[in-house]
Structures are given as C-alpha cells and as structure tokens.
Automatic annotation (TrEMBL):
<dbReference type="Pfam" id="PF00335">
    <property type="entry name" value="Tetraspanin"/>
</dbReference>
<dbReference type="GO" id="GO:0016020">
    <property type="term" value="C:membrane"/>
</dbReference>
<dbReference type="InterPro" id="IPR008952">
    <property type="entry name" value="Tetraspanin_EC2_sf"/>
</dbReference>
<protein>
    <recommendedName>
        <fullName>Tetraspanin</fullName>
    </recommendedName>
</protein>
<dbReference type="InterPro" id="IPR000301">
    <property type="entry name" value="Tetraspanin_animals"/>
</dbReference>
<comment type="similarity">
    <text>Belongs to the tetraspanin (TM4SF) family.</text>
</comment>
<keyword id="KW-0812">Transmembrane</keyword>
<feature type="transmembrane region" description="Helical">
    <location>
        <begin position="197"/>
        <end position="220"/>
    </location>
</feature>
<feature type="disulfide bond">
    <location>
        <begin position="141"/>
        <end position="163"/>
    </location>
</feature>
<feature type="transmembrane region" description="Helical">
    <location>
        <begin position="79"/>
        <end position="101"/>
    </location>
</feature>
<dbReference type="InterPro" id="IPR018499">
    <property type="entry name" value="Tetraspanin/Peripherin"/>
</dbReference>
<keyword id="KW-1133">Transmembrane helix</keyword>
<keyword id="KW-1015">Disulfide bond</keyword>
<feature type="transmembrane region" description="Helical">
    <location>
        <begin position="43"/>
        <end position="67"/>
    </location>
</feature>
<keyword id="KW-0472">Membrane</keyword>
Length: 230
C-alpha cells in the first residue's frame, strides 16, 4: 500500500503543478486575446477561459486528493475519484465539440473581422485601437488585404497602421506602401494555435488522469481492506 500511496502522492504533486501551469498559461492567453476581443469576437477568449477553469479545477482536485491520501480519508478519496471522472468526461466532450465546430468558429472569426471593418470610426475608439494594434503587431492589413479598407469599410484611405514605414512612404525596393498579408490569416493562425494547444493538453491530461484514477482506486481499495471506514 505504501508504494501505491507514494506514487499517488507524486502524481498529485505533478498534477497540482500542471494545474498551476494551465492557470498561468490560460491567464496569459486570455489577456492577449482580450486585446482584440472587439474585432475577433470571443472564440479565442472562450478557449483561454476553458484552460483557466481547467487549471483551477485541477488545483482544487489535487489538494482534495492529497488531503484524502495523506490522512487516509476514504470520503475525500471517493470525492476525488468522482470529480476526476467528471473532469475526464468534460474534457472528452470539449475535445469532440471543439473538433466538430472548428470550421464554424473559423467562419465566425472571419465574419467578425469583416463586420468590425465598418465600425472603424472615431466614435468606436476600442475598435480603432484594436485594429491599429493588430495591424502593427502582426504586420498585416485589412482582413484579406489593404483593399478591404477601401472596398468594405468605405474609407478614403488605408489606415496608417497598415504602412510598412512610419511615414507611410513607399518602400524604395518595390514601391509597396502597405503590408501585403491580411490580418485574417494571422488571427486564424493564432486561433488554431490555441486550439491545437488546447487539444494536445486535453489529450495528454486524459491519459494522465486515467493513470491517476487507477492509483486512487487502488489506494481506496487498500485503505478499505486495512482500515475499513476512517
């Protein structure tokens, strides 16, 4: 029983560290996504929010399991096993839903970018700020190209944040003034990067949590055989 208990406690420590890492990573991703929420929508923020919630739940679950194992409390261990089974189920459902709705989320992201183009006016300070920040930081312009600002947003000129040079003068080599790449590709790459990371993390934790559940069940069985109810 000591070997199983020791392995389970080691698992809980690592599980706690993993939960803390998820909480930090999710918080950073959420703060980054919040900078563009007005023009990209809530797709990226929702994924970051799920990572934060998962991290918090894992931290609480780790503490619960540690208290149950360290103090030989059968009730806490049973609660740990039930909660872990629930989180495994939720992760499995989230992975299926995320994979199924991936293309729909991609289309929603593009439509949100298009609709925010027309809101690029002095009255909509947040939209203007986010578009300018997006175009400068990601070296992109418009949704698909700089022409979006003229054809879709009906602006008289392309925003200065699209310019390759601060003074918006043509680059001497080829006469290009604005960034060639549209921001949709940059936003899409960011969205899918977070999606892949979330999918990979969920898959990794799925197998790790199965191993943790097996250890918890074995420890619970041994405690019942040795101590009965505590």
């Amino acid at each position: 029983m000591r070997l199983i208990k020791s392995l389970f406690l080691v698992f809980l420590v690592l599980y706690f560290i993993a939960g803390l890492s998820l909480l930090i990573t999710g918080s950073v991703a959420h703060r980054h996504a919040a900078q563009y929420a007005e023009i990209t929508g809530n797709s990226i923020m929702s994924g970051a929010g799920f990572i934060i919630a998962l991290g918090v739940f894992i931290i609480i679950l780790s503490v619960l399991g540690f208290l149950g194992a360290f103090n030989n409390r059968l009730g806490l261990l049973q609660l740990f096993i039930g909660s872990l089974a629930l989180i495994i189920l939720l992760q499995f459902i989230a992975a299926i839903v995320g994979f199924t709705l991936r293309n729909k989320a991609d289309a929603t992201l593009k439509n949100k970018l298009y609709s925010s183009l027309t809101a690029y006016t002095p009255e909509n300070y947040e939209v203007v700020t986010e578009w300018d920040r997006l175009q400068r930081q990601w070296s992109c312009c418009g949704v698909d190209s700089s022409e979006d600002w003229i054809q879709r947003a009906r602006l008289s000129k392309v925003p200065d944040s699209c310019c390759l040079k601060i003074d918006c003068q043509p680059v001497t080599e080829n006469g290009t003034v604005h960034f060639n790449q549209g921001c949709y590709e940059s936003a899409r790459n960011l969205f899918f990067r977070y999606s892949k990371a979330l999918g990979g993390v969920s898959l990794f934790f799925f197998f790790v949590e199965i191993a943790g559940m097996v250890l918890a069940i074995m420890l619970l069985r041994d405690l019942k055989n040795n101590y009965g109810s505590v």
